Amino acid sequence: MLDFLGTRQRTHTCGELRAADAGKTVTLMGWVNRRRDHGNLIFLDLRDRYGITQIVLDKEISPEGHPKAEHVRPEYVVAAIGKVRLRGADAINPKMVTGEIEVAATELLVLNDSKVPPFSPAEDAIQNEEVRLKYRYLDLRRPEMQHNIETRHKVALAVREYLANQGFYEIETPYLTGSTPEGARDYLVPSRVNPGTFYALPQSPQLFKQILMISGLDKYFQIARCFRDEDLRADRQPEFTQIDLEMSFPQQETVFKVVEGFLKAAFEVAGEKIDTPFPRMTYDEAIRLYGIDKPDQRLPPMTDIRDVFSAEELGSLKIEPGLPIVAIVIPGKQGMSNTQKKVFGQEINAAVGPDLAWLDVERLEKSAEYSALAGRIDAAAGKNCGLARVEPENRLIVLSPRIGTEPPAKDRLWLYKKAGQLRLDLAKRFQDEHRAFEKKGNADDYKFLWVTDFPFFEWDEEKKTWTFAHHPFTSPHEDDLIAGRMESDPEAVRSLAYDIVLNGLELGSGSIRIHRQDVQSQIFRALGMSDEEAKARFGFFLEALQYGTPPHGGIALGLDRIVMILTGTASLREVIAFPKTAKAIDLMVDAPSAVRDEQLKELHIRPVTRS
């Protein structure tokens, strides 16, 4: 028999009471986290969002409440009315903030019962993620998940407050809009009142925020919901949230300063310290030093040590002399058994493929012929990687295209990327042994970086044409435009695009935009887009550019990714209240799902059966 609450009100939360509250009569409400039956004494750990308080049902003090407590089970919803008292010295629980007190209940109301849950929210970890997602309402009761959601709230609020104080307006943009090419597939929504036409859910508010600058609103931001129909992974969801902003009359520095400001505020509310300003690096430097455009600077960079080798050594070791010879520091390789080293070598061979040679400097050291070379490599790699020396627990390998392959000069990019991927793979393998991944509890934990001057175009091998590397509204460098490289040398054109990177993860991407209609038309033509096609896709925007568009620029950062890093979780699903699986399925509400034929008929849609 369940009880009615009547006019009773909660006086305190389950995480609020302390020793100073002893003697107070209180009413607590929440879920039964655990129950312990000691006969005449029954202990209930009562849980809500704020914490846990121990409730004591004594048969003598609460003759009516004690029998109810005998039938209460975990996840029942109850109200406990009683007096706060200090625990005995031997009963204090130092692991609980309420561990010095308990509530001796005089009354217990059972407000709702519960089936036996598929897992207990009192458990620290539940291995089966599908079960967690199907019963997300139970999963969200767990303290770890509540902490993640609280952190997300605090971060979003800190960003909002910072940007509002900097003069930004928060402005909502439409969810139902037109389809525009932004690098991923759109989610399409059929229109009932306009048969045969479709809205698209926005991949980002890109065009709208630029329109807001044309509208003279000067500074815009939005905690924006975005949608992309793409293959998923741990750091990607079909619907996600980004901190989106745009400014009129900015330089890159202006955008950088604003972003660094709100990130500093966001990290502070999560109890973390970061140093500003963040360092900067061009795209070309990032590829040369790290082999990737989102460098993880907790690890030493790669370095070209070609000058260390003599011509005779290059020939003897069968190394191609015409391209960089890349040295990589391997963390934690020392102490391997011979069997482990053999397996390790096989793994590297598989990773680098047939076109790359690799040298293990540890082996060179033991060779009478090459020991001097090994010493020179150690010294050069240590100096160029910014290390005083290559520590004994770390070793080096050297990568270079095999002699005789005669790769063209442009394959430097291929070499750097191949070496960069190996560098990351090795770092992940040995991260437990590597000092760079130790938690230090200060700003050194977070290696922020601005990557700038991205290529404007990238080559589409399938379509045999140039396409935009960022998006088609990014401004190229003015000197590249003036020099005519747009037509004569598209590969050399740099964009005023920039990414913000943290510990090897891209947090956000932005650019200074094209604000002149003639330049925008030139870009479309360079992409092989006719005036008619450009007008069909972006007609409203091209027209708006003709009405006094100011120079403007902005950026969008992934809120989910920021919170994922701050909470130390490995997946975006841990910081989103109701996420999708890797197959874009919501297990809790069973979506996507089939709909009735009548609904499809209203939308003028006929299902197509796949063969």
Strand order of the largest sheet: 6-9-10-21-20-19-16-11
CATH class of the largest domain: Alpha Beta
Mean pLDDT: 88
CATH topology of the largest domain: BirA Bifunctional Protein, domain 2
Summarize the structure.
The chain is of the alpha+beta class. It has 3 domains: about 20-110, Beta Barrel (OB fold (Dihydrolipoamide Acetyltransferase, E2P)), CATH 2.40.50.140; about 145-270 and about 450-595, BirA Bifunctional Protein, domain 2 (2-Layer Sandwich), CATH 3.30.930; about 300-435, Gyrase A, domain 2 (2-Layer Sandwich), CATH 3.30.1360.
Topology at a glance:
Elements: E1 25-38, E2 41-48, E3 51-58, H1 65-71, E4 77-86, E5 101-112, H2 129-134, H3 136-139, H4 143-165, E6 169-170, E7 188-190, E8 198-200, H5 206-214, E9 219-227, E10 239-248, H6 252-269, E11 280-282, H7 283-290, E12 303-304, H8 311-316, E13 326-330, H9 338-352, E14 356-360, H10 361-365, H11 371-384, E15 395-401, H12 412-429, E16 448-452, E17 457-460, E18 465-468, H13 478-482, H14 485-488, E19 497-502, E20 505-512, H15 517-526, H16 531-544, E21 552-558, H17 559-567, H18 597-602
Parallel strand pairs: 3-5, 6-9, 11-16
Antiparallel strand pairs: 1-2, 1-4, 2-3, 4-5, 7-8, 9-10, 10-21, 12-13, 13-15, 14-15, 16-19, 17-18, 19-20, 20-21
